[in-house]
Amino acid sequence: MIKVAINGYGTIGKRVADAVAAQPDMEIVGVSKTRPSGEAYIANKRGYPLYIADITKKAAFEEAGIAVAGDVEGMLRQCDVVIDATPGGVGKANKALYELYNVKAIWQGGEKHEIAGISFNSSCNYQDAFGADFVRVVSCNTTGLCRIIKLADEAYGVKSVFATMVRRGSDPGGIKTGPVDAIVLNPVSIPSHHGPDVNTVLPSVDIVTTAMIVPTTFMHMHVIRMELAQEATREGVLDLIRNHPRIGIVKGATGITSTAELRELAADMGRPRGDLWESCVFEDSVAVGKNNELYLFQAIHQEADVVVENIDAIRAMMKAADTAEESVRMTNEALGLKAI
Ligand code: NAD
After folding, report:
1. What is the dihedral of CA 101, 84, 328, 221, to 10 degrees?
2. Residue 339: which pLDDT band, with cuts at 50, 70 and 90?
3. Percent of the chain having pLDDT more than 90?
4. Which atom of ligand 1 lies nearest, measured to the CA of 14?
5. Catalytic-residue membership of 140
6. Segment 124-143, tens digit of pLDDT
7. Which of 126, 209, 270, 290 could form a cystine bridge with 194, CB 3.0-4.6 A?
8. Looking at residues 210-231, what average pLDDT do you find?
9. Whether residue 183 sits in one domain with residue 213
């Protein structure tokens, strides 16, 4: 069994913890929090040993009725690999600690590529992470872009990409960010950082991205245009998507045209926390223009799509599955992910 620790049991960390616990070849040795919270109670309830970043706060946890197993160093002594899911920018400071305890580490998209030197997406570059000590799983938006661009590139060759991200203002549990009543250009300058981030995984793709933030909490929406090198048909593209293990199709017949209806669908499917780990391409949006341009809308559940990528990154680094296909199959089966 691969022993996994989660440093930062928040939006992403708690989901990765549950996904790890569901795998037949992995176990959770601990999760960490900085202060008593609802999530800390749940960690106890789920039986995950809870470690804390600052051991002087142990009494505060115990007064709140939350059992503490020790400090983060104690957690690191027990694991093969640590998932750093601390807030963006915080993970960098933890690298020395991971080196000290000689554990493999996976950071999230809030950190820079340079922290690990390998930016990961299981549909694109599983082998780059094979046996590696440090890996960064790219952000939710970059994950969604990488999956669909790689698919189109392998089948037709992609000459260029233009994509606009309409981003959620906050996660559903957030209370500190907005906007409440605005469309915010994020950034106002073009391009946004997402294109260069795609290039950390797919270096040769010619991509320009723009982004804006809107007052919603569930999912980002991508508007994508790709210039293809070879002739494509709409049906051909839809077939490719249907066969992808991490891209689902929102069928036209469902009548679904919004993220709100997707949230309802995910809940009705019985997904934990209503999570959509797959990218959600709207069937009726897929179109091929007369100059072989591919157009589509895809919705990306920001809290969920990177979770399954973290699981595959663990297997690649631990050499626990030889190929991406094998790891993706195991991860999907353990979670019950059959793309919509
Ligand atoms: P979050 O704020 O929800 O959770 C972070 C957790 O880390 C919290 O539980 C916090 O208590 C804990 N923490 C803070 N400082 C710590 C420290 N020094 N040691 C240990 N734990 C500490 O953040 P999140 O949204 O889960 O983001 C985590 C990472 O995932 C970031 O890099 C972010 O950019 C990336 N990410 C977030 C999303 C998203 O939509 N939320 C999507 C993809 C990637």
Report:
1. -170
2. confident
3. 99
4. 26
5. yes
6. 999 999 999 999 999 999 99
7. 209
8. 98
9. yes
Residue pLDDT, tens place only, 149-164: 999 999 999 999 999 9
> Which residues in the chain belong to E strands, given as ranges?
2-7, 26-33, 50-52, 70-71, 81-84, 104-107, 119-120, 134-137, 158-168, 184-185, 207-214, 220-228, 247-250, 279-282, 287-288, 293-300
Task: Answer yes or no: is pLDDT of 241 > 90.
Answer: yes
Whose Cα sits closest to atom 27 in ligand 1? 87
Q: What is the CATH number of the domain that holds 265?
A: 3.30.360.10
- Domain at 21, CATH number: 3.40.50.720
pLDDT for 318 equals 98
Q: Is residue 128 within 6 Å of ligand 1 at its C-beta?
A: no
CA-closest candidate to residue 279, choices 252, 255, 309, 253 = 309
Whether residues 168 and 230 share a domain: the answer is yes
Q: What is the DSSP letter of 138?
A: P
Token couple for 205: 């793709």
**What mean pLDDT comes out for the span 197-222?**
98
Tokens of 220: 């980002």
Q: What is the pLDDT of residue 338?
A: 87
Beta-bridge partner residues of 12: none
- Active-site position among 79, 124, 140, 280: 140
| 340 domain-assigned | no
128 plus 148 within the same structural domain? no
Same domain, 233 and 267: yes
